[in-house]
């Protein structure tokens, strides 16, 4: 059953007064979006390999949960033909075959493992490297691959729950989703280096209940924050922005994220009229002790603005370019992992 939170319920779970200012990380947080989808096919082991080679501070990625309860690394709710191709059914006369077009929540891990999700370069990312035959990975498999490269467990993670608050039948529910992720996270040597993010703020509250110490990031864009009739958004865990004070939408959003004890607010930073990142949002978030890490920043003109406003990190499809730009600004960056070691681990783990 889905969890629904009212403002009073949330007040019982978290205390705004308990929010403590967070120390800024030493290296500016350059996050490789879906590993770095500008450079390699998204959310696959090759994309994370190139994120490591390119010196991303944090690997950003998405989680789905399969019919049989396995946490997998993929962005979309369903398997889309532009990214994945069917190969063969997991067993003869499987009634669910073909799997392309089906929701992840309605497929098992074994069915997903038959898909080739590494052969198709996306038209809007013409520099993407393809890795034909690459399969969707479980979250555990991604942890295992990165641990091969990073045995000291220094890598940072920003992991998103892909729960659909508007169409709950498309994904597993909040209880199942968050519990499944929590089990995998808790068993990982990276458990202290995970930020948990979501557009569906119910999952942030649910994860905080299971693990009060985990850092949470409140993802937000205009479509999930503002309802046409000014009612509470299903994405914000029962919150209505109209109930929060503030001279601008950005200030109200920062106040709302603080109300659920989020460590970070992560607004969109597209160069469009409805983009939510603003200096007012950054200033209010910092005043409240939160960090600000906008997405998905693929323009250095926008990055210039964001750095002037004082953001604490940038989520980008091109971590190699943004990392180089950060260095040019005189800011410290995370070290790169040795290319030979990364590619050796990739060869070992990306087998199908």
From TrEMBL:
Domain of life: Eukaryota
GP-PDE domain ranges (all copies): 28-326
One Gene Ontology biological process: lipid metabolic process
InterPro entries per UniProt: GP_PDE_dom (IPR030395), PLC-like_Pdiesterase_TIM-brl (IPR017946)
Keywords, in A-Z order: Signal
SUPFAM superfamilies linked: PLC-like phosphodiesterases
Gene3D superfamilies: Phosphatidylinositol (PI) phosphodiesterase
PROSITE patterns given in the database record: GP_PDE
Keyword DNA repair: no
Signal peptide: 1-16
MF annotations from Gene Ontology: phosphoric diester hydrolase activity
Protein name per Swiss-Prot or TrEMBL: PLC-like phosphodiesterase
Organism per entry: Favolaschia claudopus
């Amino acid at each position: 059953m889905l969890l629904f939170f009212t403002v009073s319920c949330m007040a019982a779970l978290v205390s705004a007064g308990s929010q403590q200012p967070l120390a800024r990380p030493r290296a500016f947080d350059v996050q490789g979006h879906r590993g770095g989808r500008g450079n390699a096919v998204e959310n696959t082991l090759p994309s994370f390999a190139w994120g490591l080679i390119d010196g991303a501070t944090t690997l950003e990625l998405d989680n789905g949960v399969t019919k049989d309860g396995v946490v997998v690394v993929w962005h979309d709710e369903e398997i889309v033909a532009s990214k994945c191709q069917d190969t063969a059914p997991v067993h003869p006369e499987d009634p669910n075959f073909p799997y392309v077009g089906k929701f992840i929540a309605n497929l098992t891990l074994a069915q997903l493992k038959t898909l080739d999700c590494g052969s198709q370069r996306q038209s809007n990312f013409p520099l993407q490297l393809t890795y034909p035959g690459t399969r969707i990975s479980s979250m555990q498999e991604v942890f295992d691959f990165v641990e091969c490269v990073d045995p000291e467990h220094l890598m940072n993670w920003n992991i998103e729950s892909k729960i659909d608050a508007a169409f709950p039948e498309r994904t597993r529910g909040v209880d199942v989703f968050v519990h499944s992720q929590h089990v995998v996270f808790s068993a990982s040597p990276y458990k202290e280096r995970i930020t948990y993010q979501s557009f569906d703020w119910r999952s942030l509250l649910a994860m905080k209940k299971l693990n009060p110490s985990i850092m949470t990031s409140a993802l937000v864009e205009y479509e999930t924050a503002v309802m046409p009739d000014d009612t509470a958004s299903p994405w914000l865990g029962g919150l209505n922005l109209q109930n929060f004070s503030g001279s601008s939408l950005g200030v109200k959003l920062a106040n709302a994220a603080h109300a659920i004890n989020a460590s970070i607010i992560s607004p969109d930073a597209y160069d469009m009229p409805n983009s939510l990142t603003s200096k007012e949002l950054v200033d209010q978030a910092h005043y409240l002790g939160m960090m600000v890490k906008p997405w998905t920043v693929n323009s250095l003109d926008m990055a210039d603005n964001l750095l002037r406003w004082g953001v604490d990190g940038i989520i980008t499809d091109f971590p190699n370019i943004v990392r180089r730009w950060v260095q040019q600004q005189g800011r410290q960056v995370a070290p790169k992992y040795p290319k030979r070691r990364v590619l050796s681990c990739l060869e070992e783990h990306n087998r199908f």
